[in-house]
Write a structure and sequence with these properties.
Elements (H helix, E strand, L loop, with lengths): L3 H11 L1 E4 L15 H12 L3 E4 L2 E4 L2 E4 L11 E5 L11 H16 L6 H11 L7 H14 L6 H8 L4 H16 L6 H12 L8 H11 L9 H29 L2
Antiparallel strand pairs: 1-5, 2-5, 3-4
Length: 257
């Protein structure tokens, strides 16, 4: 069990803390299934200069969880420092949110969220020069929240296709950095990157080679597998790239009709 004070300590250390309600020990008998309980929870964390996602909002009907059909008991809670919300008037707002969502999907697509990936995520989002320092932290917290939410890849690709080639390349660069951040190149990561490549007009049969070169250039050692698995994986990559190349040619031929 953990307390709000220990959550505060974790937030001060790494910028956020993710817990389930069942992991938290409180001094008060807080029933977060009720409006009064949500008010008590909000008072408790705000007294520590913290905030929470999903967001707790107040209306004429009392307190509730914003834009969410589940109670707080059923989902991870993301605690973080109180800060200004992400500036929706920033003309790069849509780009920032789409980048964060694709980044989160790349991290969780292999089913495991590793510290090395979170460190890389923070560094990459903080490198976005079109955001203020406050917005960089807000976007990072939002991306951590996205890690625990369901995302539709087709919808994400639709948002991705809204941007010009320059922005797409920037998002792909971030996605590649996160794909290699844990020293592994997983199949689901390759699939997502191929999807991004395909929707950017980039040949998809270079994904694996690009990732390996990107890892070398970034000074990241890709984890070795045993020889038999490496041999099989090498054959799989070649076959996969060949099939992708054929598929891209077929799509190009089809769109010509």
């Amino acid at each position: 069990m953990t307390t709000f004070n220990s959550i505060k300590t974790e937030v001060e250390k790494v910028g956020f803390c993710v817990k389930y309600w069942s992991d938290i020990e409180t001094n008060n008998n807080i029933d977060i299934l009720t409006s009064f309980g949500l008010e008590m929870l909000l008072d408790e964390i705000q007294a520590l200069d913290l905030d929470i996602l999903p967001k707790i909002v107040k209306s004429s009907k009392g307190y509730s969880v914003a834009s969410f059909d589940k109670s707080l008991i059923e989902q991870p809670l993301v605690f973080f420092r109180k800060h200004l919300p992400l500036n929706r008037n920033n003309r790069y707002f849509k780009q920032a949110i789409t980048t964060a969502r694709i980044a989160a999907l790349m991290i969780k697509t292999d089913g495991v969220i590793r510290d090395s990936e979170l460190i890389a995520l923070r560094k990459l989002l903080y490198s976005l020069s079109f955001l203020s320092e406050s917005d960089k932290y807000a976007l990072f917290i939002r991306s951590v929240y996205f890690l625990y939410q369901k995302m539709n890849q087709d919808e994400l690709i639709g948002d991705f296709n809204y941007f010009n080639d320059k922005v797409k390349i920037q998002i792909i660069r971030i996605a590649k950095s996160l794909a290699i951040a844990d020293g592994r190149i997983e199949n689901n990561e390759r699939i997502l990157l191929r999807n991004l490549y395909r929707n950017s007009g980039i040949p998809t049969n270079t994904v694996v080679r690009d990732l390996k070169k990107y890892a070398i250039d970034s000074g990241i050692l890709i984890e070795n597998r045993d020889k038999q698995e490496l041999k099989f994986q090498h054959k799989y990559d070649i076959l996969d790239e060949t099939l992708d190349s054929v598929l891209d040619d077929l799509i190009e031929d089809f769109t010509g009709f």
